[in-house]
Design a protein that fits this description.
Layout: E1 3-9, H1 13-25, E2 31-37, H2 44-51, E3 56-59, H3 65-74, E4 81-85, E5 89-91, H4 96-105, E6 109-118, E7 133-135, E8 141-143, E9 146-147, E10 150-151, E11 162-163, E12 171-175, H5 176-181, H6 194-204, E13 208-219, H7 230-247, H8 250-275, H9 278-294, H10 299-307, H11 322-328
Parallel strand pairs: 1-2, 1-4, 2-3, 6-13
Antiparallel strand pairs: 4-12, 5-13, 6-12, 7-8, 9-10, 11-13
């Protein structure tokens, strides 16, 4: 097949009931819909067998999380393009064709994403990917349409295709050859930051990542771990630090990691003092300890990634500090940032 739309599911029967119909109804003839199931216990597979017998199911023996779950499922799929699609995404009638057509015409592009709008507030961008993602010099991710928790209304301001650092894992189309050449998602991450890590590695290898707003989908978001969950905070901090360790060039690694030590502990105490959130405070400390414990395990990964480097400067990795732009300059929109 040309395109495999792979939905990773874990106890998401209600999500499948609500959102899978739009995917099945709007799939191209040369594409297939596949559900990889992370050992669900809520009857998800029975639901699919009864109501969607044409959808191929890939049952996994345990819950491997987002990253390793996809790695194991995609090893069983033969296609030119993979689409990693969250189970809480509602697609539109012409969502897939612009993505595939662009990839067919641009061999230098490894991956792309559509524009993501919120399913609950359809006039606004969705937090997880908006209109394409970037990171600042210290590893903080942001999007065209979302800086930290500030989400913009979609007024067509980011409707032009753009080269981005990362495409959202909520709806990511990627060449299968590039997926495996880069090593796939890092299964040790379990969830969070894994698509940013993958896309950064693709850039290091000299490949490109695009956002194509001619394609539009709606994302609910927060279906597995809602915002404010300490487990989510732990995974975000631990995985982000690990990604920086793997991908930063040698001449920046020490400087950036020193700043992150300061900024992370500042964030922890701000969370405790201003928000009285002991759960997130504890999660940040635990994340930093976890990173220190397993950092040595990623030394071979760092060596391999740096040896694959084809370009020293990646323009999509911005050189400014997002924290400084957001809090000191009070910039709340992507268009206000230094371009």
């Amino acid at each position: 097949m040309k395109t495999a739309i792979v939905i990773l599911n874990w106890n998401g029967r209600k999500m499948l009931e609500r959102y899978l119909p739009s995917v099945v109804e709007n799939t191209l003839d040369d594409a297939a819909v596949i559900v990889a199931d992370n050992a669900s216990s809520d009857g998800s597979l029975d639901f699919l067998a009864q109501y969607y017998p044409s959808v191929r199911c890939l049952p996994l023996d345990v819950n491997y999380g987002f990253a390793e779950g996809y790695n194991r499922a995609l090893r069983l799929v033969e296609a030119q393009y993979y689409v990693l699609l969250n189970s809480d995404v509602e697609v539109t009638a012409d969502w897939l064709k612009p993505l595939v057509d662009y990839m067919d015409a641009h061999d230098e592009v490894a991956a792309c994403q559509p524009k993501l709008l919120s399913w609950t507030s359809k006039g606004y961008f969705e937090y997880a990917g908006a209109s394409g993602g970037f990171i600042d010099r210290y590893g903080y991710p942001f999007c065209r349409g979302r800086l930290f928790d500030m989400v913009e209304e979609d007024q067509g301001q980011y409707d032009q295709p753009a080269s981005v650092l990362w495409a959202t894992g909520a709806c990511l189309l990627i060449r299968s050859a590039d997926y495996w050449a880069a090593g796939g998602l890092d299964g040790r991450f379990f969830a969070h930051n894994e698509e940013i890590d993958l896309c950064w590695r693709l850039h290091i290898m000299g490949r490109q990542v695009m956002c194509l707003p001619q394609s539009l989908v709606y994302h609910l978001g927060g279906g597995t771990l809602p915002k404010g969950n300490p487990r989510k905070t732990f995974l975000n901090f631990r995985n982000n630090l690990t990604m920086l360790y793997k991908c930063l060039p040698d001449n920046e690694l020490r400087h950036v990691m020193r700043w992150r030590w300061f900024l992370d502990y500042l964030a922890a105490w701000q969370t405790l003092i201003l928000n009285r959130n002991f759960g997130d405070f504890k999660a940040i400390y635990q994340a930093r300890r976890a990173f220190r414990r397993w950092k040595k395990d990623f030394a071979p990964d760092r060596e391999r990634i740096q040896s694959s480097r084809r370009q020293d400067v990646i323009p999509e990795r911005k050189r400014f500090s997002l924290l400084w732009q957001y809090y000191a300059h009070r910039h709340r929109h992507y268009s206000e940032l230094p371009q």
